[in-house]
Here is the input.
Amino acid sequence: MAEPAIILFAHGARDPQWAQPFKTIKHLLETKRPGAVVELAFLEFMQPALADTIEKLAQDGHQSITIAPLFMAQGGHLKNDLPKILDALRAGHPNIMIKLLPAVGDVDEILAAIAAWIVSATGGSSVKTVNQ
Here is the structure.
């Protein structure tokens, strides 16, 4: 049985340089989780598409796939498009567990890290957590 896989799922853009931060996140994740299978997938404009990535991982024998949406907010793509895509993928691969993490913009620790960076970058010295 293959190791569980992680898919970093982003919107996509026409400019190939747009994907560089996601490639960096992929590299950092692979460094922090040696042996982990980490893939990038995109909703539109860029390849591979999420369905193609799931298909590849299924063919490689992965039975557990976690999707990490690299979106800052729950817009139409995450509320409407992604559930439809996941329904079709789960129907096509009923023996694979496909888990969906929250969008990065819904994670308090990430929002606090962004706020802390802005405080630091603007000469401030402290930042309250998101829930304060």
Summary: Residues 106-132 form one domain. Strands lie at 5-10, 37-42, 64-69, 97-100. The CA atoms of residues 55 and 93 lie 9 Å apart. The first strand starts at residue 5 and ends at 10.
